[in-house]
Amino acid sequence: MIILDGKKTSADIKDEIASEVKSITLSGDRPPHLAALIVGNDGASLTYVGSKVKACEKVGFDSTLLSLPESISEQELLNKVYELNNDDKIDGYIVQLPLPKHIDTQKVLMAVDPKKDVDGFHPTNFGKMALKLPTFISATPNGIMELLKRYKVSTEGKHTVVIGRSDIVGKPISILMGLKTNPGNSTVTLVHSRTNNIEDLIKQADIVISALGVPNFIKDYMIKDGAIIIDVGITRVPDDSVKGYKIVGDVDFENVSKKSSFITPVPGGVGPMTIAMLLTNTLQAYKN
Prior knowledge:
This protein is α/β, with parallel strands linked by helices and 288 residues long. The protein folds into two domains: 86 residues, Leucine Dehydrogenase, chain A, domain 1 (Rossmann fold); 133 residues, NAD(P)-binding Rossmann-like Domain (Rossmann fold), CATH 3.40.50. It contains ten helices and eleven strands. Helix 1 packs parallel to helix 10, helix 6 runs parallel beside helix 7 and helix 6 packs across helix 10. 42% of the residues are buried.
């Protein structure tokens, strides 16, 4: 069993980006600039955005954090998005989700300039990804593909079962794993909450990618020997630690790891890759 170490791989990618940014600034050009727009004071979102800002500092990017009140109107938020679209000093930016209930999330994401959409959420970028055209790929699915690539995990001709059909992870990774690429070239089954025989399908899978958000959902009896397990789930479960919680994935790691050939841990697997690929997208936006 080989652990797909996202923490180490992410650090390697950041070092590569930092080296490139150093060359850019030594030549007299400005560094890439990533902006993050957050509405309200959701604790998890603030922590996540904070980690993105720190990652920017580490690789030498400029970064801007725009923190807006939860009471902001939809039109005021859209105006801020248009400002970022027209700011030539900003190469890429993200709108941190979730947004407050009184704001139409899809309307806001649609307003983001696709050329600055380093989250890869805009339909233009999603469509280009599906057609295998150069574009920004959503950071979490892109991180999974990069992990598979760097660990030289063979995916061609294999049966991939993706659990979860979210626009951010499930749908894009199911498309990417089916494209004529390496990694990719697998036969993909996408299962979700309305799938009747989920366990039977998981048992048939050579590769399981779980983005369900249900702690320890996948047990060892559900997978076949030698399966490749990618755990995207991140759930806070209360415990007796100082923090008062621990981070748990969708996979019963202790037991499933004994049967798998490759597996991502939680934390330290897919999570760190997400920020690394966001930085990669921002560097690409800068070059574009």
